[in-house]
Design a protein that fits this description.
CATH superfamily of the largest domain: Reverse transcriptase/Diguanylate cyclase domain
CATH architecture of the largest domain: 2-Layer Sandwich
Shape: globular
Number of domains: 3
Oligomer: single chain
Distance between the termini: 42 Å
CATH topology of the largest domain: Alpha-Beta Plaits
Structural class: alpha+beta
Order of helices and strands: HHHEHEEEHHHEHHEEHEHE
CATH class of the largest domain: Alpha Beta
């Protein structure tokens, strides 16, 4: 999948996607048409089959390019800097699209990118090139634990970066701040953690990854605004999870903060989600969004992974949006 999509302006969407089959196979026109329309439906592009690239948005052009890359059922797809030059929201929409289609079609995605740390959120394995050589390959967690001057310099350069999607801290900055908080904390002081998670599969399937991104943005904004005001700091973990550490609150105090947070999110934040989705799906569309939260106490021996694991077992619904016929909400 080319950085600039490399779509042929003189060809329709259908013909662009069909080109690899026409050039590299001996399939008949009827079989090719069936395969192309199947891919276009899967990419939510069936209505655009007869349009030309210039008539499409940038996001739709990306989906056409991906549909063309998928048309021959490859085992591996190379993405040449697919997010270069994109704004933070569009960048994360593209990365979410790649992650979603990788799960759906089972191919291996190889991404070349300078957009760091954005790509970490969908990467299983990372390779860092330095002066023409591979200096590291492994998971993100292994990267943060790898003791090498170049890696340390590289990670330090991320210290000022935030997740462009939600405004939350990057994972590396979050871990560094957590370690400093643990080291400098007063003996006997209670700390707590809250893991927020979203479930909106029906919505994501209906509208695609862009809506999931916008919904997570709303949650991140509320977490930042309300829990950041009391000293909490947060980072996005996974596609629909946000972890918050409250250095000055025990579990009981965290419960009180969560009740206030949930009330405001239910009354204001989820109404924004309703307005967002209603405008795109129609007022009679049916979908559900559940916001979960799990609270745990934190001790000096807890690392971030153990906090997440324990919080997952404590999670419960703290806000929900249910839309049925006539736009009813709960």
């Amino acid at each position: 999948m080319f950085q600039n999509n490399a779509l042929f302006d003189s060809m329709t969407v259908f013909d662009n996607v069909a080109l690899p089959l026409r050039q590299t196979t001996k399939l008949g026109s009827k079989v090719i048409a069936e395969k192309v329309m199947t891919r276009l439906r899967q990419a939510e592009l069936a209505d655009a089959a007869g349009k030309y690239p210039a008539e499409l948005s940038g996001g739709m052009q990306k989906r056409v390019a991906l549909a063309r890359a998928l048309i021959t059922d490859p085992k591996v797809i190379l993405f040449d800097e697919p997010t270069t030059g994109q704004d933070p929201v569009r960048r994360n929409v593209i990365l979410s699209m790649i992650a979603e289609y990788r799960r759906k079609f089972g191919f291996t995605a190889v991404l070349i990118s300078h957009d760091i740390p954005d790509v970490y959120f969908i990467s299983d394995r990372i390779v860092l090139l330095w002066e023409g050589k591979i200096e590291f390959q492994g998971s993100y967690r292994e990267l943060t634990e790898f003791n090498h001057p170049m890696i340390n310099e590289f990670l330090e350069s991320l210290e000022g970066l935030q997740d462009g999607l939600t405004g939350l801290l990057s994972k590396q900055v979050f871990r560094s701040r957590y370690q400093i908080t643990q080291t400098r904390g007063q003996p006997g002081r209670s700390m707590s953690g809250i893991l927020f998670s979203l479930e909106f599969e029906q919505l994501s399937e209906t509208l695609g990854p862009s809506v999931a991104i916008e919904v997570l943005t709303i949650l991140g904004d509320y977490v930042n605004r309300e829990l950041g005001a009391v000293g909490g700091f947060s980072a996005r973990y996974g596609r629909g999870e946000i972890l918050t550490v409250l250095p000055y609150a025990n579990v009981e105090e965290a419960e009180d903060l969560l009740r206030e947070f949930s009330r405001d999110l239910q009354e204001e934040g989820l109404s924004k989600i309703h307005a967002l989705t209603g405008a795109k799906m129609g007022i009679d569309a049916c979908f559900e969004i559940h916001v979960y939260a799990g609270i745990v106490g934190i001790t000096r021996n807890d690392d971030v992974n153990s906090i997440i694991e324990r919080a997952m077992t404590e999670r419960r619904i703290v806000a929900r949006h249910v839309c049925g016929m006539g736009g009813d909400r709960k």
